[in-house]
Amino acid sequence: MIIAANLKTNLTRKQTLEYVNELEDFLNKNNISQEVLVFPAASSLNAHSGKVIIGAQNAYATANGAYTGEIGQDHLDEFGIKTILIGHSERRHILGESQEELVKKFNYYKELGYKIIYCVGEPLDVREAGYEPMIEYISDQYEGIDTNYENLIIAYEPVWAIGTGLTPTLEEIEATHKDLKKKSPAPLLYGGSVKVTNANDVLELQSVDGILVGSAALYVEHFCTMCEYAQKIENKN
Ligand SMILES: O=C[C@H](O)COP(=O)(O)O
C-alpha cells in the first residue's frame, strides 16, 4: 500500500529532517515494506536515502527560469527528488491553478518520468448536488491527464473533508473509489481527515490502495502507526 504524508506549509527544514529520520527508523525497526512518501514544504526538501521517498508538493513546469516564487526541476534534481504532487485541492481552489495549468505541469513531469500523485475531489456544493454531478465534476479533473501513465498514483480527496474532521462514510468512499477505478488503472489513495482513529478502516476497504494524510501526519508517531496498520493489513491478506 501507499502511505503518504503531505506536510503542507508546516515543519521547518530542521523539523522535517528529524521527522524523516524518525519515520525511517520506525520503518526499519518494524520491517515495514509499504511505499511511504513524505511531501515537505519546498524549503525543507532534502536528499534522503532509505525507505522513505521524499516528494515535492509542487514545482513549476520548467527546469529553471524567471518564475518568481516557484521552484523547478533543477531544484528537485539537486536532492534526487523524482516524485511530485499535482492538482492538490489547495492548489486548485486556494492558489487558483486551472486544469490547463495542471495538465501542462503533469505532462512536463511525466516526460521526465516522475512519479506523479494526481489529486482529484469535489467541493461541498458539488457533493450536495448528488452523486452523478459529483462524478461528472471529478471526471472533468481527469481531462488531459494520461490515466495510463505507468508512474501515476491518483488521490481522491473530497475538498470538504480536507482538514475539517469530516469524512465520507466508508461505504461512500468505497462506492466513489469503485467508480474512479474505472477511469484509470493507477493505484487510488483516499485523503481527507484521515486520522489514527479511522485510517485502519479506510485502508481495509478493497478499493483503497493507500492514504494521503495532512494534519494527522504532522505527528510522526501517528503517521508511523498508519504505516504499521497498512503493513498489518497486507500481512493478513
Ligand atoms: O494532502 C492531504 C490532504 O489535503 C488531507 O489533509 P487532512 O488530512 O488534513 O484532511
Automatic annotation (TrEMBL):
Principal EC category: isomerase
Any single GO CC term annotated in Swiss-Prot or TrEMBL for this entry: cytosol
Keywords of the record: Cytoplasm, Gluconeogenesis, Glycolysis, Isomerase
Pathway: Carbohydrate degradation; glycolysis; D-glyceraldehyde 3-phosphate from glycerone phosphate: step 1/1; Carbohydrate biosynthesis; gluconeogenesis
Reactions accelerated catalytically: D-glyceraldehyde 3-phosphate = dihydroxyacetone phosphate
GO terms of molecular function: triose-phosphate isomerase activity
SUPFAM superfamilies (UniProt xref): Triosephosphate isomerase (TIM) (SSF51351)
Keyword Repeat assigned: no
Gene Ontology biological process terms in this record: gluconeogenesis; glyceraldehyde-3-phosphate biosynthetic process; glycerol catabolic process; glycolytic process
Family recorded in the similarity comment: Belongs to the triosephosphate isomerase family.
Protein name: Triosephosphate isomerase
Source organism of this protein record: Sulfurimonas gotlandica (strain DSM 19862 / JCM 16533 / GD1)
Gene that specifies this protein: tpiA
